[in-house]
Design brief:
Number of domains: 2
Number of strands: 9
Largest sheet: 9 strands, mixed
CATH topology of the largest domain: Spore Coat Polysaccharide Biosynthesis Protein SpsA, Chain A
Strand content: 15-25%
CATH superfamily of the largest domain: Spore Coat Polysaccharide Biosynthesis Protein SpsA, Chain A
Structural class: alpha/beta
Amino acid sequence: MKRCVSVVIPTAATPVRAALLSRALVSLLTSQNELVVPIVVINGSSYAPEVVESLKQRRDIRCMQLEEGSATGARLAGRKAVDTEFFGLLDDDDEYLPRAVEIRLNALVRDESADAVITNGYRRWNDQDVIAFPEFSTCETDPLGRLMDFPWLTSAGGLYRAESVQLGYFDVPPYMEMTYLAMKLALSKKLVFLDTPTYRLYSGTPESLSATEHYLRGEPAAIRRCLALDLPARIKRRLAQKYAASLHAVSDFERAHGSYLAAWRYHLRSILSPCGFRHLLYTRHLVSVFRGRSRRAVRFTLFLG
C-alpha cells in the first residue's frame, strides 16, 4: 500500500535559490516510489515575486509564506502543517536520491517501535560524490558520543514518525539546529540508523547560511542550549570543549578583521569557560597586537573584556 510522506523545504525563494529548489523538488516528485507531498515554506522578504507566484500556482506541492527570514522558523511552520503519518526535511539546495523515501519508510514499517530512521548520504565535491559520514555505521551503539565526532543528522537525512516526533522537537536554536534536534532525539526516541546513501548535499552553494559570519557567531549560544539538555557527564565535557573552541573561533575571526577589543572579549570568555585552558597560549597573539601601545591602553582593553 502506498503511503503519503510530507517533506518540509524552507526556502528564501530568491532568484539564486530558484534553480536549486527546482532540483530539490524534482528529486522528490520524480524519483520516489512513494507519494511525496513537498511543503515549501517561503520565508523572509528577499524572495523574487515571480518565483513565489510560480510556486503558489503549482498543484503538486503545498506552499506557505512567512514574513520572518528564518530557516528554523520555516521548518517549525512546515512541521505544524504536516498531516501525514511520516515526514522528512530537505534544504532547498540538496536532493533526495532515487528510492530514498521507500528505503527509509520500509525501515519504519518493519519496526513499529522506531520513531525515526537516519541514513547516510553523499556530499558533492568537485563534481564527485563522496560519502558524507564514513563512520556512520558506528552511530547505532552510541549516537550521542558519535554526534560529538560528526553531525550524523542532516536536514536531508531523516524520516520521522509524526505521532512520535512532535512539534516541540523543532523548538531549536537558529544555529546548529540539526545537532540540537539530534541530541533531543537520541535522548528520548528510538532511532534506526541505515548506512545507506539516500541524499546528496551540495557544498558551497550561493547564500548558504552555514558559511556565514552569523553562523560562526551563533555557535556559542547554540552550544549553551545543548548544554542545558539532560546529557550524560561525558557528553557535557565534550560540549564544554566545543563551547570554548567556538568562542576561540570568534575571537580569532575578530582579530583577523581588526576588531581587537571584541577579540579580547571572546578570548577571555573562552579561557574562563570550562575546558578553555587549552586556548590560553593564544593570548600571546592578542598581546602582540598591542606592542607599541601604552601599558595603560592594554590594561583598559583587558578591563573592558
